[in-house]
Specification:
9% of the residues lie in helices and 39% in strands. By secondary structure, the protein is mostly beta strands. It has five domains: 1-29; 34-156, Immunoglobulin-like, CATH 2.60.40; 161-244, Immunoglobulin-like (Sandwich); 249-350 and 380-407, Carboxypeptidase-like, regulatory domain (Immunoglobulin-like, Sandwich), CATH 2.60.40; 352-369 and 419-487, Sandwich (Immunoglobulin-like), CATH 2.60.40. Strands 2, 3, 4, 6, 7 and 8 form a six-stranded antiparallel beta sheet that branches. Strands 20, 21, 23, 24, 25 and 27 form a six-stranded antiparallel beta sheet that branches. Strands 11, 14, 15, 16 and 18 form a five-stranded antiparallel beta sheet that branches. Strand 6 and strand 7 form a beta hairpin. It starts with a helix and ends in a 9-residue tail after the last strand.
Length: 487
């Protein structure tokens, strides 16, 4: 064979080999699945230009399905519907480890319609690892229902009601400092709220029904003034006008009890106010605020609305004693707050210090392991977050269009520690009721406990003594050796 023939043979072999290589690469790194979300108006007409975003994920049926998981980047990016009213939404195949995604929790927004936060099932087949007999039965059932390919129901946006408020009393201030708080509409969104004149604010995107609303005006000193929380009859396409009077928010002055040594260090007090006569689970307008505690144990919260006041305090070595509640977590202390100023004393109890030694299966120390705890505080017997992570003020949130300064969840250094070269990590300030720890490391994980049917958790159970240093040893296993799955 001459040299030109040999070159043609090699070139032909490469041409034949390229599709095989491409297929092999594709099988090794499969593209993430994608859902085609259709957005329609009430008449079924496609809505182009709607902003669609995946806010959260739910798993396929099983013990984790009821949980909500934040959508990771880059899958949380906003996608705009095309001319046919369709948004192609890639999503992660697994929510965590080998637990598969089943449902997308979406936000859908268009300036001509009421914003919506629907959920759509995007993967209905049994998870990988299901017994063959179950998989065949599931496939046959889906063939009979003509649902082998999942086609999520379209998102149908609603036409909004028109509602305008006229503040008849209260401070004379910049119209840009007048807001309405209600579920489903961002109080800062210029697509939702207009201010046609002094003391007047309104929207054309209010969801039909009987929403709960509260008008808030920030005066020139930044102190909030409030209307009563109210329900209104909102009818699509109809305009309602409501006159409201505003009252100045109250001041709460407090002190930590005498059992906390002075000076108080790293003190933080967080307040949540729910309107009386409304259930927190119905998402009425609520108010959130925080402030540092002074070294002498005193604090002051300015500009709170009347309602059910909940207070939680954390400082070095102490946490506020539990208020009333039904579950095994922290609860705020509760007070009735009217339109007059209020003085309170916050009962406190000692926290625990935890020294954790993190080792591998052979007992060797694991440097750099991050040991974390997440003691939750439950507000209104409805919503919960890590104690002391919610250092934000609703007033700042209203005045900050980006939301970056006014609304944030921050890490709590009190509840975590990083292992040194000896594998020792110190968590300095845990509520003694904390009963679980987690560990984060790029190469090691805690062994999973539980069962696939009931749910597997990579957590260590602990029992703490308040006012003492508690010593714990945690044994880790190589990451990826025993991934958590549905079966």
């Amino acid at each position: 064979m001459n040299s030109s023939g040999f070159r043609r043979l090699v070139a032909g072999g490469i041409v034949l080999l390229l599709p095989i290589v491409a297929l092999w690469v594709f099988l090794q790194t499969p593209a993430p699945p994608a859902a085609f979300i259709r957005v329609r108006d009430p008449l079924g007409t496609p809505v182009p230009g709607a902003a669609v975003r995946i806010e959260g994920l739910r798993t396929k049926p099983g013990p984790y399905q009821g949980n909500w998981y934040a959508c990771p980047e880059p899958f949380a990016a906003v996608v705009t519907t095309d001319g046919a009213g369709v948004a192609r939404m890639p999503y992660p195949r697994n929510v965590f480890e080998k637990i598969e995604t089943g449902t997308l929790c979406l936000s859908v927004d268009h300036p001509n319609f009421v914003p919506d936060r629907p959920e759509r099932v995007v993967a209905s087949a049994l998870p990988a690892g299901a017994p063959v007999r179950q998989r065949l039965g599931d496939l046959w059932d889906r063939i009979r229902r003509h649902s082998v390919i999942v086609r999520p129901d379209p998102v149908v946006l609603k036409v909004g009601a028109n509602l305008f408020f006229n503040a008849t009393s209260g401070p004379v201030a910049d119209p840009a400092r007048l807001f309405v708080m209600t579920s489903g509409l961002d109080a800062r969104d210029s697509n939702s709220w207009i201010r046609p004149g002094p003391g007047v604010i309104g929207t054309r995107r209010l969801a039909p029904g009987k929403p709960m609303l509260q008008v808030v005006q920030l005066d020139s000193n930044g102190v909030p003034w409030f209307s009563e929380t109210m329900r209104v009859d909102a009818v699509a396409g109809r305009t309602n006008e409501v006159s409201v009077g505003l009252y100045r928010g109250s001041t709460v002055r407090g002190n930590l009890d005498a059992g906390v040594p002075r000076p108080v260090r790293q003190g933080r007090v967080v307040a949540q106010v729910w309107p009386e006569g409304f259930r927190p689970e119905d998402s009425p307008p609520s108010w959130h605020a925080w402030t540092p505690v002074d070294a002498d144990g005193s604090f002051q919260l300015v500009g709170l609305p009347a309602g059910k006041l909940e207070v939680v305090v954390l400082c070095d070595g102490f946490i506020s004693t539990n208020g009333p509640g039904r579950f095994s977590m922290r609860y705020p202390q509760v007070h009735a707050l009217g339109r007059e100023d209020l003085s309170i004393v916050v009962g406190m109890e000692p926290t625990a210090r935890v020294s954790v030694r993190v080792v591998d299966e052979g007992g060797s120390p694991i440097r750099g392991a991050r040991v974390v705890a997440w003691p939750n505080v439950r507000y209104g017997e409805w919503s919960a977050t890590v104690v002391g992570s919610d250092l934000h003020n609703t007033a700042e949130f209203l005045m900050d269009p980006s939301g970056g300064r006014g609304w944030r969840i921050v890490p709590v250094p009190d509840f975590e520690g990083v292992a040194d070269e000896h594998g020792e990590a110190v968590i300095p300030n845990l509520p003694a009721t904390t009963d679980r720890l987690g560990v984060e490391h790029p190469e090691f994980v805690l062994p999973a406990s539980g069962t696939p049917a009931a749910g597997m958790q990579r957590e260590a159970r602990i029992s703490l003594v308040a006012g003492s240093t508690n010593r714990i040893v945690l044994h880790m296993e190589p990451k990826g050796r025993s991934p958590v799955g549905h079966y």
